[in-house]
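Hello, quick one for you while I still have it in my head. A protein chain has come my way and I'm curious about its shape. I'm sending you its amino acid sequence along with the C-alpha cells. I'd be grateful if you could look everything over and explain what you see. Here's the protein in full, and shout if anything looks odd to you:
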Amino acid sequence: MTSMYRVSNSDELAAAMGRAEPGSSILLADGVYERHEDYLLEGKEGSDTAILSIRAVNKGKATIAGESSIRIVNSAYVEVWGLNLQVERRESIVLDGSRHVRIARNRFKPRQVGAEYSLLSVVGSGSGWNRIERNEFGPKADPGPLVIFDGDGERISQHDVIEYNYFHDIGPRVANGLEAIRLGLSGISLSDGYITIQRNLFENCDGEPEIISVKSGRNTIRYNTFLNSAGQVTARHGHGNRFHHNAFIGDGVKEEMGGFRIYGNDHHISDNYMENLTLDALLIDGGNYDGGPDGYPEAPTPEELRKHWRVYRAHVVNNTIVDCRHGITLGKRIPYAPEQSVIAYNRVCGEQPTIHEYRPSPAVCIHNHKADAADIRRPAILTRAEVGPDSE
C-alpha cells in the first residue's frame, strides 16, 4: 500500500523521509525548508514499480536551505524532483551506496560562503544505475567540484547516466578542485565505471583546467556542448574511455579554452568538433609515469596513481578543428611520448599546424589534412531550451 505525505516545513520533511516506504510520495509545498541537520532516507529498497518520490508540488518553489544535505543511503528506486537547492557549506544531495536513484529537474544554486563543498556526491559500496537528468548546476564560485563520483575506496559507481543538464558560470579560476564533473579519484582510477555523460551543456565553466575530470575507466562522454569554457575534458586517470560527437565552441578571445587532454591506455576520441579555441584542441600528452601497455602494473603506489600516465593506443579519428590556436598536439610532458597511437582522418581548418609534436613520437599519423572553410559544417549544438529543469 502506498502513502502520500504532504509537508510544509523542515521537521515534517525529515519525519516523512524517515517513515516513507517504497511507492510513497513526499510532496513539498512551496516555501523554504531550512535546518542544520541532514534529511536522511536510509534502507528504502523499492523497485521499478514502487518508486519512493520526493517532489516539489510546484517545480522550483520548494527550497532546501541551511546546512542540510539530502542523504539517500543504501536505498534503491528513489526520485528527487523539482527542488531548489540552496544549501550552504555541504553537498545538496548525497547518494551513498544507492542504486536506481533519479535526480531530475532540480536547481543547484548554492549560497556562496567561501567554504569547500560539492553539490552532488555519489559514494559508497554498490552504487550504480543512477540517473542525473535535466538539472541546473551553477553559478558556483566556492571551491569543490560540482558533481563527484568518489566510490567506496575500491571502485567507482557503475552504469550511471548524466544527461541534459546545464552547467554554467563556474569560477573564478583555481589551480585544482573546481571541475564541473569529476568521475573518480586516483586511488580508484583502475576501476571501471561504464558511466555515460551525454547531451549536457557546459557554458562559462572556467573553474579549473579540467572541465570534466575522468579518473576511472570505460566511461563514455558524448554529444555534449562546451561554450566559452576555459578548460579541457581530461582523461586524467583510467583506461578505455570514449569521447565522441562533442562540440567545443569558443570566442577566440578567452584564454585556456581547449578540447581534450589525454593520459592512459586505449582511449577513443572521434567525431568531435572544435572551433575558436585558445588552448590545444586535442592534446595527446606525454607522461611522467609508464604504466605499461597493459596499464595495470602490480601494486602501484598512491604516488604512482597520481602521476600522468603514458598514453598507449589512443585512437584519435575524424575530428574537426576550426580556427583554433593549437590543433593536434602530441607529448608535452616528459619523458614518455605517446605509444602505439593512431591519429587519422582529422580535419584542420585555419593557420595552425595540423599536428605538432613536442618530441618524436611513434604515433601513426595518416590522412590528417588541411580543410577549406567551405567544406566544414558545424554540427548542431545544444541550447538552453534543450537542457535543465525547464527543458521539454
Q: What stands out?
A: The chain has one domain: 112-386. The CA atoms of residues 244 and 270 lie 5 Å apart. The first strand starts at residue 4 and ends at 7. The mean pLDDT is 96.
